Amino acid sequence: MKEVKEFVCITCPMGCRLSVEVEGEEILSVSGNSCKRGWEYARSEAVNPKRMLTTTVRVEGGDQPLVPVRSEVGVPKNSIMEYMDFLNAQRVQAPVVSHQVICELPGCGVKMIASTDIAAK
Ligand code: SF4
Question: Which of 33, 59, 79, 96 has its CA 20 to 30 A from that of 4?
């Protein structure tokens, strides 16, 4: 069955309104995009939406109990709760330095990166 999905492109501040005609997993058409990046975003968003993941991971032996982390790229939106459960169970030993890889997410292999420094106690 054909379906039209509509999104606002978040790839740049222009915020073009995108319209994607899909049938199951097949993309039939994309319209409303002003550039190829919008076309790629629309196709991805229609069949495999991704989001940046930001949260915190527990630190052992640090002067702060948690370190903010972010995914290096977007992760599958449908798996975000599963990734949050995984990250809640993670522990990292202080010191932590900004941009340090804290862990890789199971399944997709996306790296989670520390956003700040945490000194050891
Ligand atoms: S379609 Fe292109 S110009 Fe429009 S918001 Fe997306 S990236 Fe920006």
Answer: 79
Our measurement of the distance from residue 98's CA atom to the centroid of its chain's CA atoms, rounded to an integer in Å, reads: 19
Cα 54 from Cα 108, distance rounded (Å): 16
Ligand 1 binding pocket, CB closer than 6 Å: 9, 11-12, 14-16, 33-35, 37-38
> The domain that contains 95 carries what CATH number?
3.10.530.10
Predicted confidence at residue 1, as pLDDT, reads: 87
Is residue 120 in a domain? no
Query: Whole-angstrom Cα distance, residue 53 to residue 18?
Result: 23
Q: State the distance from the centre of ligand 1 to the C-alpha of 73, rounded, in angstroms.
A: 19
